[in-house]
C-alpha cells in the first residue's frame, strides 16, 4: 500500500501536464490563434516602423562595423545590446530582409511565445481554464508581433522561456536565457529584483553566485566584439538607463505636462516610487512567511557565514554539506510566477514612458495578476478590457493615459491587499525521492 501511494503521488511531469483539464483547451486555443495569425498576415496591411531600421543596423554590423556610434537606422542610432544584432542578423539571413517573410517568422514566434505562456498558466493553479482565452484577445499584441516586428517580441519570448525553466527548477539555465533576453532589450531587467529574491530563497549562496556569473558571462561573450574595440561606445549606447522618451508617444503619462514629463525631478520621483514599492512588496508579501525582507536577508547572511566557516574548518564532514543543501526548500510554482509578474508590473506602473510596443512587456501577465487579486470576476474582466482599450487608442491622450494609470493602480492595490500565498512546496516525504 505504501509503495502504491508513492507511485501515484509522483507522476512524470509530461503525464501530469496531459492529465491537466486545462491542457486540451490550451491546445485548442493555440490552434485557433494560429489560424488568426495566418489571417492577419494575409489580409491586414503591414505597418512600417522599425524593421527597416533594424535591417540597416544589422547590415552595418555584418559589414564589419563595431563602433556602436556608427550603427544607425532610419529611426536613429542603435540602442540595444549585442544579442539583438545576432538575432536580427539571423532574421535577415532567413528572410532576406523581406517584410512578408519576416511576418511569417514572427507569426511562428508569436505561437511559440503563446505556447510557452500557456504552459506557465497550465502549470500554475491560479487562472480558470476559460480565462486562458484572454491571452489571445489583444488586438494590440497581435499588431506588435505580426504587423510591426518589434524586438520586444523576441525579448519577451526568451523571458517567458526562462520563467518556464524556473518552474522546472532549472535555475542556471533559466538565468542564461534571462541574460539572453536582456541582451535583446533592457526592459527585461525589470524582472531582475524579484528574480534575485527568488534565487536567494531557492539556492545556497554558492549557487546564486554561480548562476549570476553564468548570466554575466553571457553578456560578456555576446558583447565581446564591441567590448574589445569600442567598449565605452557599446556600454553607453546599449545599456543607457537615462534615456528620455518623447512625450508625444507616451501611453501612460500623456496627461503630465511635457516640461514636468522630461524633468529630472519626475524621473527621480518615479524611481523612488519603484524602489519603495518593490521593497514594500518584498517585505510584507513575498517574504512575509520568512518574517519580512530584513529577517530573510539576515538569515541568508548568517547561513552564508556559517557555510564559509564550515568550509574553512578542518571538521567539515560531508554530512554537514548534505544537510545544508537539503535544508533549502522547494519554491511553490505559484510563488515564483506571482513574484516575477508582480515585480515586473511594479516597474510598468512606475515607468516614465510606455510606448505602444511596451504593452508586450506585461500583457501576458495580466490575467494571472487579475486572478491573484480578490476582485470579483466581473471587475477583473472590466479591468482587463479597460487596459486593452487604453492601449488601442491612437494617439494616446490625457484621458486615456490617466485612465490607464488608474487601472494600473487598481490592479496594484488588488495585488497588495491579497494575502500572500505560502511560498514553499509542502513536505511530502518519499515523493521527492523518485524525482
TrEMBL record:
<comment type="pathway">
    <text>Protein modification; protein glycosylation.</text>
</comment>
<keyword id="KW-0808">Transferase</keyword>
<dbReference type="InterPro" id="IPR007873">
    <property type="entry name" value="Glycosyltransferase_ALG3"/>
</dbReference>
<keyword id="KW-1133">Transmembrane helix</keyword>
<keyword id="KW-0256">Endoplasmic reticulum</keyword>
<dbReference type="Pfam" id="PF05208">
    <property type="entry name" value="ALG3"/>
</dbReference>
<keyword id="KW-0472">Membrane</keyword>
<feature type="transmembrane region" description="Helical">
    <location>
        <begin position="401"/>
        <end position="418"/>
    </location>
</feature>
<keyword id="KW-0328">Glycosyltransferase</keyword>
<feature type="transmembrane region" description="Helical">
    <location>
        <begin position="143"/>
        <end position="167"/>
    </location>
</feature>
<keyword id="KW-0812">Transmembrane</keyword>
<feature type="transmembrane region" description="Helical">
    <location>
        <begin position="265"/>
        <end position="286"/>
    </location>
</feature>
<dbReference type="GO" id="GO:0052925">
    <property type="term" value="F:dol-P-Man:Man(5)GlcNAc(2)-PP-Dol alpha-1,3-mannosyltransferase activity"/>
</dbReference>
<feature type="transmembrane region" description="Helical">
    <location>
        <begin position="100"/>
        <end position="122"/>
    </location>
</feature>
<feature type="transmembrane region" description="Helical">
    <location>
        <begin position="336"/>
        <end position="355"/>
    </location>
</feature>
<feature type="transmembrane region" description="Helical">
    <location>
        <begin position="25"/>
        <end position="46"/>
    </location>
</feature>
<feature type="transmembrane region" description="Helical">
    <location>
        <begin position="204"/>
        <end position="228"/>
    </location>
</feature>
<feature type="transmembrane region" description="Helical">
    <location>
        <begin position="173"/>
        <end position="192"/>
    </location>
</feature>
<protein>
    <recommendedName>
        <fullName>dolichyl-P-Man:Man5GlcNAc2-PP-dolichol alpha-1,3-mannosyltransferase</fullName>
        <ecNumber>2.4.1.258</ecNumber>
    </recommendedName>
</protein>
<dbReference type="GO" id="GO:0005789">
    <property type="term" value="C:endoplasmic reticulum membrane"/>
</dbReference>
<feature type="transmembrane region" description="Helical">
    <location>
        <begin position="78"/>
        <end position="94"/>
    </location>
</feature>
Amino acid at each position: 500500500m505504501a509503495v502504491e501511494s508513492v507511485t501515484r503521488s509522483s507522476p512524470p511531469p509530461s503525464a501530469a501536464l496531459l492529465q491537466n483539464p486545462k491542457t486540451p483547451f490550451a491546445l485548442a486555443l493555440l490552434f485557433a490563434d494560429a489560424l488568426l495569425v495566418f489571417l492577419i498576415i494575409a489580409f491586414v496591411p503591414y505597418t512600417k516602423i522599425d524593421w527597416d531600421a533594424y535591417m540597416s543596423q544589422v547590415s552595418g554590423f555584418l559589414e564589419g562595423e563595431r563602433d556602436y556610434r556608427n550603427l544607425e537606422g532610419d529611426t536613429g542610432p542603435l540602442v540595444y545590446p549585442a544579442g539583438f544584432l545576432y538575432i536580427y542578423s539571423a532574421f535577415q539571413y532567413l528572410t532576406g530582409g523581406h517584410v512578408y517573410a519576416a511576418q511569417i517568422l514572427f507569426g511562428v514566434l508569436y505561437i511559440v511565445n503563446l505556447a510557452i505562456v500557456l504552459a506557465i498558466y497550465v502549470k500554475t493553479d491560479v487562472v480558470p481554464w476559460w480565462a486562458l482565452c484572454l491571452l489571445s484577445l489583444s488586438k494590440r499584441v497581435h499588431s506588435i508581433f505580426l504587423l510591426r516586428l518589434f524586438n520586444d517580441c523576441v525579448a519577451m519570448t526568451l523571458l517567458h522561456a526562462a520563467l518556464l525553466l524556473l518552474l522546472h527548477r532549472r535555475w542556471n539555465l533559466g538565468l542564461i536565457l534571462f541574460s539572453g533576453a536582456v541582451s535583446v532589450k533592457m526592459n527585461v531587467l525589470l524582472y531582475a529584483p524579484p528574480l534575485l529574491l527568488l534565487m536567494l530563497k531557492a539556492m545556497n549562496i554558492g549557487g546564486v553566485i554561480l548562476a549570476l556569473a553564468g548570466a554575466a558571462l553571457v553578456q560578456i561573450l555576446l558583447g565581446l566584439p564591441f567590448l574589445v574595440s569600442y567598449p565605452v561606445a557599446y556600454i553607453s549606447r546599449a545599456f543607457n538607463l537615462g534615456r528620455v522618451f518623447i512625450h508625444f508617444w507616451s501611453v501612460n503619462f500623456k496627461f503630465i505636462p511635457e516640461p514636468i514629463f522630461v524633468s529630472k525631478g519626475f524621473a527621480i520621483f518615479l524611481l523612488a516610487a519603484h524602489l519603495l514599492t518593490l521593497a514594500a512588496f518584498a517585505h510584507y508579501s513575498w517574504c512575509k512567511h520568512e518574517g519580512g525582507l530584513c529577517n530573510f536577508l539576515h538569515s541568508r547572511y548568517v547561513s552564508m557565514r556559517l557555510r564559509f566557516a564550515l568550509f574553512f574548518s578542518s571538521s567539515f564532514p560531508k554530512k554537514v554539506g548534505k544537510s545544508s543543501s537539503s535544508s533549502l526548500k522547494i519554491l511553490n510554482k505559484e510563488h515564483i510566477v506571482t513574484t516575477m509578474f508582480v515585480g515586473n508590473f511594479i516597474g510598468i506602473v512606475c515607468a516614465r514612458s510606455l510606448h505602444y510596443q511596451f504593452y508586450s512587456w506585461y500583457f501576458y501577465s495580466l490575467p494571472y495578476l487579475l486572478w491573484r487579486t480578490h476582485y470579483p470576476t466581473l471587475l477583473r474582466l472590466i479591468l482587463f478590457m479597460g487596459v486593452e482599450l487604453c492601449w488601442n487608442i491612437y494617439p494616446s491622450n490625457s484621458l486615456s493615459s490617466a485612465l490607464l494609470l488608474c487601472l494600473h493602480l487598481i490592479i496594484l492595490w488588488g495585488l497588495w491587499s491579497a494575502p500572500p500565498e505560502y511560498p514553499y512546496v509542502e513536505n511530502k516525504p518519499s515523493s521527492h525521492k523518485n524525482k
